[in-house]
Amino acid sequence: MNLDSDLIRIPPFVDSHIHFVKEGRAVSPDGLVDIVKSLLKHGIFAVMDMGYKTGIGLVARRILSEGGSVIPLIIKSAGFAIYRKGTYGVFLGRGVIEKDDIKKTVGEIADAGADYLKVVNSGVVCTRKEGFVTPGGFPIKFLKAICDEAKNRNLPVVCHANGDEAIRHAIIAGASSIEHGFFISKESIHLMVEKGISWTPTIFALSSITSTLRPSEARNIEKVVEGHLEAVNYGDSIGAKLRIGTDSGSKGVRHGESFFDELGFFKKAGIAFDKILSYACLDSRETPKDSYLMVRRDFIESRKIEAVYYDNKEINQLLGGL
Q: Is 197 strand, coil or helix?
């Protein structure tokens, strides 16, 4: 391929929040292959899988590590999430209701090979009621017990949390990452920075649902997104450890394609181009040797990568074996 001087070379991307499902539903083996192909073709060489009730992310990781596979997708997986029975999270993993359940459930997830523990500590943003989050999550003492047991099993805790109280509790309990984080306060952002906790704001995943809503509900979600963009900007300004994560696999959120939507929202939030790249790309310690992307400086707007290379070979040469 002829590459002109307007192109810049950047490391491959990492999507820090995906699910190995499509439209929220389980996939066949062929569907799993389609997901992997789409991620790689969009320059995503590493993902953090946030769990599903079947543990499909662990299956995907095992398949790509077997038989000397040359497919360069690095998968870290929660396998299954933990949620409070009777509230949001049933499709994501394992429900617990008693403190006695914690050791057994965390142990099962650790023994399955999870890289970290995903905890669902709230519901989701309500479309009908402004500033409201649907039921979900744990009392702070219960959450602390989960985080302590995860620590005993050497599992970092990534925490789905919306609403400032749920976010604050996750920070205090010992989470290493906040996922989503809608309605976060400046005080909680400062606390995350102080404790070195990362934040994956998943802006596009919420914004994408507006086309399916009634006008009044769509306006409510648009206001939530505007506030979230302001929070992301503030976090960036004080040194928050931001990550680009799409929540792809959710309804209306496609693997690979949605990464550019999320990049666009980070730009809309006022984040500088070089900072966006630092949040989006693998660092030098994780990047496979001689693997890189060629893009133009307007690639976020054009949604186009000019070339994807793995070990100095164009990625399409490698995908033929899938």
A: coil
